[in-house]
Amino acid sequence: MSTGATLKTLDSRQRNVRFPVSQAQRNLLRVGQPAKVTATPISAVGRIPSVGYAASSSGGLATFPVVVSLPAVSGLRPGMAVQATINVKQVTRGYVVPLEALHQQGPHATIWVRTQRDTWRLVSMCW
After folding, report:
1. What is the reported pLDDT for 113?
2. HSE (CB half, 13 Å, CA atoms) of 113?
């Protein structure tokens, strides 16, 4: 999961990045999870100290605030645009497909796959 944010400073020893996530993303995050924050070419790994429970709404989309605390890193300054990346699940086997290729069918996401016989079949994706 990746999202953009603006760096905010709490004090001289700790830097926090606050960014909004959807409810589906929020449910995958936990306090203490590591998160990589990048402001090219600078990057640092921090931890999530808080995941908000109160949603705010913009354009009909509810988002929840998440904070990533970073160690002091040379070059990171308040107001910089940063990218936060949080690994929520790691699998050893799988396929990478474009998000646009997934189709919602009931509670499952599905994708059309071309077989060796040049026919198509619908495959249910597991989360």
Report:
1. 85
2. 12
